[in-house]
Design a protein that fits this description.
The chain is an all-alpha fold. It has three helices and no strands.
Length: 61
């Protein structure tokens, strides 16, 4: 008899409860990260500028 009761259990019951938990969750979202690309480009530009200056100084001496 207990097996028959287990067959009538809604298999989506836990899914519905999980969806309710997710919809009621008030945890704040993580702050978006700042992009790294501008800093990388600035660093590469500085290295290139120094290389050009060193190249010009070596060429003129």
């Amino acid at each position: 008899m207990s097996q028959k009761n287990e067959e009538n259990v809604d298999p989506a019951g836990s899914t519905v409860m999980f969806q309710k938990f997710v919809s009621d969750n008030n945890e704040p979202q993580a702050a978006p990260r700042r992009p790294v690309t501008p800093y990388v480009l600035a660093g590469v530009g500085a290295v290139v500028a120094i290389a050009i200056i060193v190249g010009v100084v070596v060429a003129w001496s």
